[in-house]
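Quick one, tokens below. Sequence please?
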């Protein structure tokens, strides 16, 4: 066996090689009332090795920073997170020998905190009443005091976030639907998934309708999603990009999360359930107009990191 052969095998045998190429699942029972010419499909992002769609952004943020010399040996990667991106940072940091320090709201689920600690991340717990915005303010204060010590990954403002989805998620959806996609739906958190995927899909097929999902109130229980009008708005967010904004309630989302588990066998996270609520609204409107459609939405993660919280407790 040659060294070249080993290199070829190694390229396919790393943890990073498992990120992306996630399956597309058709919803069946919760869509049984729809005509057969309307399909609702979900991108199962929990199959990434870190368990969420955020693996894509975290890997691209790290690779881009290393390539540009912003993340160098001995530096600490620091960022604010509600959980999933932090888990991806921590996983990749363990793999690459990068120390990771994360600012996390103290009310993050015990499961997520346990995973972060298991990967060896250093955690700073911030005021739960301030949510993700409080964590953002806290990490900015730290970096302002010691800018040379840290690489601030800044997922809410780093273009490498949305670019990850422009170059991977969108192309996978395009190939998996053979270009037949008519609607794309994703929740708004950092907004990277929605912005990057929508931009590429629009470039490939301008007629694709891209629909953004956010909570219907500043005070909500939709983990991972932002009410954009009252939150610190990410600079990577393009408010002109969405063809439509859908505002989803907490109660209907929790009900859908339980339905997906019990009727589809899909134990998904809260933001995934919110996307399904939105997708069914769009699908039912198509049915009323007697139109066809191939709707794709993002399932950012599974429910395993949330089982100690509503709606599961």
């Amino acid at each position: 066996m040659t060294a070249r052969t080993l290199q070829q095998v190694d390229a396919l045998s790393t943890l990073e090689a498992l990120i992306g190429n996630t399956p597309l699942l058709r919803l069946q029972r919760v869509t049984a009332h729809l005509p057969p010419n309307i399909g609702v499909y979900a991108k199962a992002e929990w199959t990434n090795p870190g368990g969420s769609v955020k693996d894509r952004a975290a890997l691209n943020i790290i690779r881009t920073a290393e390539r540009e010399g912003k993340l160098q040996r001995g530096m600490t990667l620091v960022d604010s997170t509600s959980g999933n991106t932090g888990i991806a940072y921590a996983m990749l940091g363990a793999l690459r020998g990068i120390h990771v320090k994360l600012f996390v709201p103290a009310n993050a689920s015990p499961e997520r905190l346990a995973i972060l600690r298991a990967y060896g991340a250093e955690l700073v717990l911030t005021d739960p009443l301030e949510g993700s915005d409080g964590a953002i303010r806290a990490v900015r204060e730290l970096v302002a005091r010691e800018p040379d010590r840290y690489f601030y990954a800044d997922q809410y403002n780093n273009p490498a976030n949305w670019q990850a989805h422009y170059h991977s998620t969108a192309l996978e959806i395009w190939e998996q639907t053979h270009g037949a996609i008519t609607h794309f739906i994703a929740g708004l958190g950092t907004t990277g998934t929605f912005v990057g995927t929508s931009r590429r899909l629009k470039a490939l097929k301008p007629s694709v309708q891209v629909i953004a999902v956010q909570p219907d109130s500043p005070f909500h229980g939709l983990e991972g999603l932002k009410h954009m009008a009252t939150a610190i708005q990410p600079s990577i967010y393009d408010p002109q990009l969405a063809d439509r904004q859908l505002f989803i309630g907490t109660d209907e989302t929790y009900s859908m999360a339980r339905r997906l588990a019990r009727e589809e066998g899909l134990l998904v996270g809260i933001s995934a359930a919110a996307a399904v609520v939105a997708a069914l609204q769009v699908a039912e409107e198509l049915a009323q107009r007697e139109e066809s459609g191939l709707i794709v939405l993002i399932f950012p993660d599974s429910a395993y990191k949330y089982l100690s919280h509503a709606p599961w407790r």
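Residues 54-152 form a domain with the Rossmann fold fold (CATH 3.40.50.1100). The mean pLDDT is 94.
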